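Give me structure tokens for this 239-residue protein.
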Amino acid sequence: MKILVLQHVDVEHPGIFRDFFKADGLTWDTVELDAGETIPDVAAYDLMVVMGGPQDVWQEEEFPWLIAEKAAIRRFVVDLGRPFLGVCLGHQLLASAIGGEVGLAKTPEVGILKIEMTPEGKSDPIFRNVADPMGVLQWHGAEVLALPKGTEILARSESCAVQAFRYGKRAYGMQFHVEITGQTVADWAAIPIYARALEKALGSGAVERLADEVATKLPTFNRNAKTIYDNFRGVTSLA
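Here you go.
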């Protein structure tokens, strides 16, 4: 089992999923795209995991590596049909790579908010034994606006119609963050664009308040992450 992780800023990594990988004896290669690292031949990997980041999918002139990244995602999920998990920006990149549309959100979502499953999500195995609605950490100003044929929308929120979707049988995107740890809020709040979004959404002192709320709810968040991870392994037949 070989896992390829694509990152766009070093503090947005697989988080608690790294613990799950280690417990299952899985290893992974990380490519830090914002640091100029290049994507290897994706055919050598069994699973691709693409994380979040402060970039937007349409910023190809500013971040030209986005072009190669979307091509790699397209090859992996469309041509090779292999398992994929995208979180936040990774979710949006999957949508863009398969011909969907991503744009600025009418209402950015920042903080702990609720998502609910669609009828398709209720029957999709990846959300088996997960609470509905489910409290999650959100931190995004862009969203998936449209998806092509071959996809199913699995979760939504009041402000965002595509919180999770599946392409084909084994490629999943999630706008919300399931991977968070006790360090997540502090690490992300150190990124200026993230800190500004947080303060704008939640007001002065938002970092401390959100960190406290996340700490209180972290056991539940981590249990949900483990359930989704186990379900994903079952869906994708990862050994």
